[in-house]
# Entry
Amino acid sequence: METKVNNPRRKLYFVSLAVLLLGIVLFFIVLIQGVYSTLNALGTRVIVPGTSIIELEEAGKYSIFWEYDSVIDGKLFQTDSINGLKCTLMKVNTGELITLESPSVNASYSVSGREGQNIYEFNIAETGKYELKAWYENGEGEETVLAIGKGFGMAIVRTVLISVIILFVTVGTFISIFIIAFRRKEESMEEFME
# Structure
């Protein structure tokens, strides 16, 4: 008779453990995939100093990141400083200069051999080709990589938020099932004592 009482309780313990392990795995999968897909949003990368034509396919707010550790076409870029680096952004077909501002929130990343920090943000009203020109004020400076992307900060926040929600739901479910199993044990012990 004791084995019949213990079997459902043991199953609940295993279910709670399985839920916890599954939740932890899901947390890491969502977090890693979210970070990689967010990093792919910084797909436009240019080597500076120099002038590049970039295609911006959505209107709205963009960020420019200095990738101080990056690889493009097999070439490694590791830059200690970009002191004196100046940038301009111009819409190609109109000649309109786009205002580059200091970022409102500092953001950085270190994923898959790429490390960067935001240095500018800007807004565009329409899609199209834009000329990004970058140079050092004193004429000399290290070659480095700039990455341009849209919605990077919000995408990271969304990814972290979803991951944390998954983790909290998982831990909550685990604790609930564990408590139910523990209470059944106490109830079965009380019945046995009577």
